[in-house]
Amino acid sequence: MTRTAPTRTEPTPLIDTFRREHGFVFIGSYELASDDSVFVETPVKITERRPLVYVIFADDICRYVGKSVQGYIRPLTYHKNGVMTDVRDGILSDLKAGRKVTVYAKTTGLDASHEGLDLNLIEAIEQSLIREYRPTWNNQVQSFALQPAQSARLKGASGGNA
Q1: Which of 8, 21, 146, 130 is nearest to 65 (CA)?
Q2: How far apart are CA 49 and CA 157, in angstroms?
Q3: Taking Cα atoms as reference points, which of 71, 61, 58 lies closest to residue 7?
Q4: What's the Cα-to-Cα distance from 68 to each of 37, 48, 71, 76, 97, rounded to whole Å?
Q5: Tens digits of per-residue pLDDT, 120-162?
Q6: Domain locations along the chain
Q7: CATH architecture assignment, domain 13-140
Q8: Residues in the chain with pLDDT < 70?
């Protein structure tokens, strides 16, 4: 397999605003090799186990929101996944269309309790993001690109420095 040059990993202004507003960090990007196989470039140790919520973007389009207690291995191995074929095939399709496919995760601020009861913030954050961004690979009807109205809301929340 011959690898092509990796895509740029710096976020677009809209994704950067998403990251700041929701506390997500870059954990990897899917890349397309010259033989049309997919590989991952990542700055994290893929085998590190930790609970997280993650988002896969294709350019400025939120494609998938997920959660994992297995850590980084789940969001960074969809290109090998024989079960989640919508996500696997979507990644390949977006890469072939020239889109940048990046993965961001939230690994902190996921523990909370109320009146002595543990709260499942991972599930709550995942569901809230799915409702907000309606990602197509989460079996929603339409993908949600960060449209001008959404962009304006994000810019307002971040002080307009997007």
Answers
A1: 130
A2: 32
A3: 58
A4: 25, 12, 6, 11, 28
A5: 889 999 999 999 999 999 974 344 445 545 555 554 544 544 4
A6: 13-140
A7: 3-Layer(aba) Sandwich (3.40)
A8: 1-11, 140-162
Q: pTM value?
A: 0.78
Q: How far apart are CA 89 and CA 118, in angstroms?
A: 37
Distance CA(121)–CA(22), nearest Å, equals 13
Sign (positive or negative) of CA dihedral 56, 62, 63, 69:
positive
Q: DSSP of 90-152, one letter per residue? A: HHHHHHHTT--EEEEEE-SS-EEEETTEEEEHHHHHHHHHHHHH--GGGT-SS-EE--HHHHH
Give the per-residue pLDDT at 142. Answer: 43
Q: Tell me which H or E stretch contains 67.
A: strand 61-68
Residue with tokens 């710096």: 10
Cα–Cα distance between 15 and 6 in angstroms, integer?
A: 18
Q: How far apart are alpha carbons 30 and 41 in whole angstroms? A: 6
